[in-house]
Amino acid sequence: MGRRGPKPEPASVKLAKGKSGRRPIGVEPSAEEQAKTVATSGTVEPPAWLKGEALDVWNRLAPRVIGMKLLFPIDAETFGRYCRNFARWLKMQQRLDEMGEIYEIETASGKVRRADPSFIIGYHLERQLVTAEANFGLNPAERQRLFAARAAGSTGDLFSGMGSAPAATGADKTPASPAPAKPAAKGSAVGFLQ
User: Fold this and answer.
1) What per-residue confidence (pLDDT) applies to 176?
2) How does pLDDT run across 3-50, given as a tens digit for each residue?
3) Is the separation of the CB atoms in 71 and 132 below 8 Å?
4) Burial of 39: CB neighbours in 10 Å, binned 0-12, 13-18, 19+
5) Closest to 145 (Cα-Cα) out of 17, 9, 21
6) How far is CA 179 from CA 71, 133, 149, 172, in A?
7) CA atoms within 13 A on the CB side of 122
């Protein structure tokens, strides 16, 4: 299931519209900041199976994604798959530019127009690319969402702030008894967590 609500707008669009609320507008890091981050964070090596044009896509995009702190060594296989699919999509687009999107065949009932297989393959690859681009912040709306979340200090940690109670209280060092739990609302899953 996707995220609720409208897609976030890029920071440049928000700045052009003007600030309408109290929330800060996330700003994309400059090229200098991205280069500094890449230098300090090291490099992520492409997978060994990535070859040819897909490796060229990796070499062009990986430094930018690393600079945004969205690509780590554990993500190399997934980003490599994105690069390979992007290279295949480019090949399909080149073929469509040369051959066209539709071809005709002669049947017993006359001429029939059909979609070229490159068009269908390219369409499926493009749908996969759009999903992967969202995961790696390769479109303006997702970058804005990621930068806004970072600016708000959202860690996404469900259990943050859940410290343990002190082990002992008073001079006799007997364990403190926990406060009785408040009953949860009927039908609430919170009662199971207590």
Assistant:
1) 53
2) 677 766 666 667 666 666 777 776 665 556 655 654 555 578 999 999
3) no
4) exposed
5) 9
6) 44, 48, 35, 19
7) 16
Residue type at position 111: K
Give the span between the Cα atoms of 72 and 41, in whole angstroms. 9
What are the φ/ψ torsions at residue 106 (nearest 5 degrees)? -100, 125
What pLDDT, in 10s, does the model give residues 87-117?
999 999 998 888 888 888 888 888 988 888 8
* Mean predicted lDDT score pLDDT of the chain: 74
pTM value is: 0.55
| Three-state SS at 103 | strand
* pLDDT at residue 143, rounded to an integer: 81
Nearest to 88 by CA among 125, 48, 139, 62: 125
The tokens describing 36, both together, are 């500094």
End-to-end CA distance of the chain: 29
Q: How far is it between the farthest Cα atoms of the chain?
A: 99
Which ranges of the chain does DSSP label H, i.e. alpha helix? 11-17, 31-41, 52-67, 76-99, 117-135, 140-152, 190-193
